[in-house]
């Protein structure tokens, strides 16, 4: 079998590299061809530098050594980006994707990054999808957001295997399928498998090897290690030199710049090991060393406690105030330990045999209509509009978002709703080389009365002049955002300006199809998921349909906007007569919301001071499925993509205008539209990377307080302003 492994590697981390090495080598020993998938992009290592800064303040780069190790020992694939693996790796004809090990499913570290759940292999029938000893870190599977996130990401997995027992039951309950527990992959190999990797002995005399993990418990670790040094009369070799606790007896030459080879050697030739690291415990066991693990009193202790308890090594775990044992020179009962270790290996071997002997088969998608999991619904309304028996209605939930509800008395079980759902039927993304521009309208009226550069109205006017139709989003008299369709230029002006809220569906797909059937040109502008729903609903290409998508950050709840505007009216003591998120009265780079009241009062509030916008930008109020959006960056479903060109100041050298748009032409239809308005637009060619260097390029990760916010939103006497103030930060 051809197997691809997705894990942490090449991250200047001893354990991560050896986990990858061990799993790939063990699978090779089973007779398989193994590829280690090189992944970058999608902010995979968003927190990596932050973690180094916080936890490894004396960290010195070892990148060259770790790169050399990866190149030498891993069968690396071509580089893939943004969790889009299939196209780049198609020639490998992979049979199995294995995710793990290490903390690839840690909500704190990678926050459900799709890269570590199989990327775009997830949900397809192309490969067997499995994990091996994936660690959830400190993830809380009981939390609603995390529970549903695991359910969403793991629904298509054929096999799920984690590393820690304490998360097994909760994860099984969350995803509704069997969860296996297997030991860390580094324990799959034997001492003889690691010896070829080691350097020669680094120190001629006996020593204690002190392997740091991070600085949280250095004081306890230092105290214990120096006590051992005094009683054994041995010097200390430390993996990281720290001025805070620089040991007088410590041999320090080179110890702050080791990679895999030197670290393995340090373990192998040591007499004792003291540590706060999981993999230091693993290699102490592997090389039969007298070791002690000093507890850190946090979630990372669990994996060491689990391992030591399973092997009968509980006495090697030291609490912060515990003294060095009197019998510190005594060796553990390695015969008993290795007997238990072989039992753990048997469990792991059986699991990997099951994974690699499983035949490929179609995976059933679990859309919202099937699973009731709100993470699997874009709320696009395609299923409701396509239903021939009107069995589906879009119903508002407690958070204010509209989800399909099936009336079983009307449903004839034709399955058309499932086939139309863009979660099941993935749209075909264009392989056209996009043309990218920094752009704005040369028409002063359009430019002044637009949120950014006025691209939408400039192109929409083509259709209106041809007596065609324009579809967009407008506020009604009660400031409810709705999709609508217009053919009169004056009426179509209501589509101007950004609406930072989920728009009501308003039967727009049916109305758009009716307009298309007149043979007149139609421009549909909306979020990318809405356009995907439209195309699935139509079921065929229309030559007279043109689509324009927004660079969408995410969509917030209509209920939140309603309550926020009610709060503003109560605070002003007057009814709102005008409101918009982007006011043309604020002629500066700072965006501002505009509130006009019946009593004549007016507020122009900068977005950085507007609690509603802060809640949106911090992802406190967004739709759940936005956290797993498939329409980011290169996944262009529409003919044209528009949005703010954040960071334009680096590219536009003349006097700064009010706003500048990013304009991305995705196909021939988009080319045609731009040709029609060339004299009306300023167009400055750019690279796609220029647009996304400061713009939204990956799914918006939900705020950690999102569940609490919505749980409290509808409670009596709860102030929405107080909720924002309390929970945003």
List keywords for this structure.
alpha/beta; Alpha-Beta Plaits; 5 domains; 8-stranded mixed beta sheet; 32% helix; elongated
Description:
By secondary structure, the protein is α/β, with parallel strands linked by helices. The protein has five domains: 197 residues, Rossmann fold, CATH 3.40.50; 140 residues, Rossmann fold (3-Layer(aba) Sandwich), CATH 3.40.50; 53 residues, Alpha-Beta Plaits (2-Layer Sandwich); 192 residues, no CATH class; 90 residues, no CATH class. The chain contains 26 helices and 27 strands. The strands form seven sheets. It has an eight-stranded mixed sheet, sandwiched between helices. Helix 25 runs antiparallel to helix 26. The longest helix is centred in the middle third of the chain and has 24 residues. The chain is elongated, with a radius of gyration of 29 Å. The two termini are 49 Å apart. About 5% of the residues have low confidence.
- Helix fraction, binned, reads 25-40%
Count the helices. How many?
26
Strand order of the largest sheet: 19-18-20-21-25-26-17-27
What is the CATH homology-level superfamily of the largest domain? Answer: 3-Deoxy-D-manno-octulosonic-acid transferase, N-terminal domain
Ranges with pLDDT <50 over ≥5 residues?
41-60, 241-254
Largest sheet: 8 strands, mixed
CATH class identity of the largest domain: Alpha Beta
CATH architecture of the largest domain: 3-Layer(aba) Sandwich
Mean pLDDT: 86
CATH fold topology of the largest domain: Rossmann fold
Give the radius of gyration: 29 Å
Structure classification: alpha/beta
Per DSSP, what share of the residues sits in E-state strands of 2 or more residues? 15-25%
């Amino acid at each position: 079998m051809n197997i691809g492994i997705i894990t942490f590697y090449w991250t200047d981390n001893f354990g991560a590299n050896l986990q990858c090495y061990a799993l790939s080598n063990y699978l090779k020993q089973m007779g398989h061809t193994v590829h280690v998938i090189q992944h970058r992009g999608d902010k995979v290592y968003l927190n990596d530098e932050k973690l180094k800064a916080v936890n490894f303040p004396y960290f010195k780069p070892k990148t060259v050594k770790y790169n050399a190790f990866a190149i030498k020992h891993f069968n690396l694939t071509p580089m893939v980006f943004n969790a889009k693996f299939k196209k780049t790796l198609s020639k490998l004809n992979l049979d199995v994707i294995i995710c793990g090990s290490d903390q690839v499913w840690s909500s704190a570290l990678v926050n459900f990054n799709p890269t570590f759940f199989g990327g775009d292999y997830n949900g397809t029938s192309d490969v067997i999808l499995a994990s091996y000893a994936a660690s959830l870190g400190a993830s809380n599977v009981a939390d609603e957001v995390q529970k549903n996130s695991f359910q969403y990401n793991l629904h298509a997995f054929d096999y799920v295997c984690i590393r820690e027992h304490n998360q097994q039951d909760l994860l099984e309950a969350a995803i509704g399928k069997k969860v296996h527990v297997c030991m860390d992959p580094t324990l799959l190999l034997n001492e003889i498998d690691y010896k070829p990797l080691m350097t020669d002995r680094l120190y001629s005399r006996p020593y204690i090897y002190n392997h740091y993990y991070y600085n949280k418990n250095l004081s306890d670790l230092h105290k214990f290690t120096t006590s051992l040094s005094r009683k054994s009369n041995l010097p200390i070799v430390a993996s990281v030199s720290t001025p805070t606790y620089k040991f007088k007896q410590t041999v320090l030459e080179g110890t702050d710049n080791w990679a895999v080879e030197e670290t393995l050697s340090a373990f192998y030739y040591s007499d004792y090991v003291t540590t706060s690291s999981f993999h230091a415990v693993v290699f102490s066991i592997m090389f039969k060393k007298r070791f002690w693990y000093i507890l850190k009193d946090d979630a990372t202790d669990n994996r060491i406690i689990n391992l030591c308890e399973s092997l009968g090594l509980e006495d090697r775990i030291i609490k912060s105030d515990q003294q060095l044992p009197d019998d510190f020179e005594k060796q553990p009962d390695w015969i008993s330990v290795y007997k238990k270790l072989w039992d753990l290996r048997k469990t792991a071997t059986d699991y990997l045999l099951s994974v690699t002997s499983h035949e490929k088969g179609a995976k059933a998608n679990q859309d919202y209509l099937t699973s009731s999991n709100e993470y699997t619904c874009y709320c696009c309304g395609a299923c409701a509009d396509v239903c021939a028996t009107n069995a589906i209605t879009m119903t508002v939930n407690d958070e204010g978002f509209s989800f399909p509800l099936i009336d079983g008395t009307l449903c004839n079980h034709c399955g058309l709703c499932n086939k139309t759902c863009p979660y099941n039927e993935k749209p075909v993304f264009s392989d056209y080389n996009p043309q990218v521009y920094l752009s704005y309208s040369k028409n002063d009226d359009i430019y002044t009365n637009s949120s950014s550069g006025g691209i939408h109205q400039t192109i929409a006017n083509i259709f209106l002049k041809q007596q065609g139709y324009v579809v967009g989003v407008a506020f009604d008299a009660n400031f409810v955002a709705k999709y609508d369709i217009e053919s009169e230029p004056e009426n179509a002006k209501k589509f101007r300006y950004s609406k930072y809220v989920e728009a009501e569906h308003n039967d727009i797909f049916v109305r758009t199809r009716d307009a298309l059937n007149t043979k007149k040109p139609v421009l549909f502008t909306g979020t990318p998921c809405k356009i995907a729903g439209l195309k699935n609903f139509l079921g065929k290409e229309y030559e007279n349909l043109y689509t324009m998508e927004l660079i969408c950050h995410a969509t917030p709840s209509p209920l939140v906007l309603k309550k926020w505007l009610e709060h503003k009216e109560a605070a002003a003591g007057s009814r709102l007569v005008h409101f918009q998120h982007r006011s043309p009265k604020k002629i500066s780079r700072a965006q501002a919301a505009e509130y006009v009241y019946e009593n004549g009062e007016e507020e122009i509030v900068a977005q950085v001071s507007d609690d509603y916008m802060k809640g949106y930008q911090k992802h406190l109020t967004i739709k759940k499925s936005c956290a797993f959006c498939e329409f980011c960056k290169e996944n262009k479903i529409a003919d044209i993509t528009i949005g703010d060109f954040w960071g334009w100041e680096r590219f536009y050298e003349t006097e700064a205008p009010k706003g500048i748009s990013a304009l991305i032409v995705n196909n021939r239809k988009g080319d045609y539209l731009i040709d029609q308005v060339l004299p009306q637009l300023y167009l400055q060619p750019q690279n796609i990377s220029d647009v996304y260097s400061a713009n939204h390029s990956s799914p918006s990760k939900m705020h950690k307080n999102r569940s609490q916010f919505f749980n409290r939103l509808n409670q009596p006497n709860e102030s929405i302003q107080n909720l924002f103030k309390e929970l945003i930060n």
